Amino acid sequence: MKRSLVVLAAVAALISCGGGGGGADAPAPQALGVELYSDSIGAGYGVRVPPAARMQQLRPAWQVVDHSVNGLQLTALMQGFAGLPRTGRYVPLALGLNDAYLGAQGYEQSLRTAIEQLQREGRVPVLTGVVGVPKPPALAAQHNAITHALAREYGLQHAGWGEDYRGEVDVIADGIHRTQEASDRLAALLVAAIERAAQEEQQR
């Protein structure tokens, strides 16, 4: 599918600079293990190249494992989250919109529990926020705000998916799922957030 020149330029810049700054003299991207938990946005409903696949294209040295499932809620995932096998060090949590649509209670506690479980495993959670939609459910803004608050509290990197929303141009006809261009932006933002997290670890 066609992508705008703006998106192509942004992706090219991300590849050249390592995603989070630097320039021509920036070191080559390091090999990282990444495991993504997301819903249909992460699964790439309606696009040819889902975010995890785009991330893998942007960072071929990474090992990206995609656990995205259409319709997945964070509150449902948490029922067996502690027992799920994981090998990646960086674990993006990209859930919350379905919880908002269904009015699920306990989103903040579920996200806090997921963060603490990953940290006990020696992994690094990365938060994405909740994507915007033209007609958001009542809890969507609250859930997005929770992701920012917990990122600050736990010192985590945040990809800013909700803040990147550019209106109806970002969604397909169903009014929820991303266009390829918008999906590619989410992937680039998440790559940058993961690389910031990796840089923070190197500096400790």
Topology of this structure?
Blueprint: H1 5-17, E1 33-38, H2 40-43, H3 51-58, E2 63-66, H4 74-77, E3 90-94, H5 97-101, H6 107-120, E4 124-127, H7 140-154, H8 180-203
Parallel strand pairs: 1-2, 1-3, 3-4
Descriptive overview:
This protein has helices spanning 5-17, 40-43, 51-58, 74-77, 97-101, 107-120, 140-154, 180-203, and strands at residues 33-38, 63-66, 90-94, 124-127. The longest helix has 24 residues, at 180-203. 43% of the residues lie in helices and 9% in strands. Strands 2-1-3-4 form a 4-stranded parallel beta sheet, with helices on both faces. It is globular and about 45 Å long.
Quick structural overview:
This protein is α/β, with parallel strands linked by helices and 204 residues long. Helix content is 43%, strand content 9%. The protein is globular and about 45 Å long.
Alpha-carbon distance between the two ends: 42 Å
| Inertia-based shape | globular
Question: Which H/E pattern describes the elements?
Answer: HEHHEHEHHEHH
Main-sheet strand order equals 2-1-3-4
- Number of H- or I-type helical stretches: 8
**Helicity, in percent?**
40-55%
How many DSSP E strands? 4
> Could you give a short account of the major beta sheet?
4 strands, parallel
Structural class: alpha/beta
Low-confidence spans: 1-27
The radius of gyration computed from the alpha-carbon positions, rounded to a whole number of angstroms, is 16 Å
Whole-number mean pLDDT = 89
Query: How large is the share of residues in beta strands?
Result: 5-15%
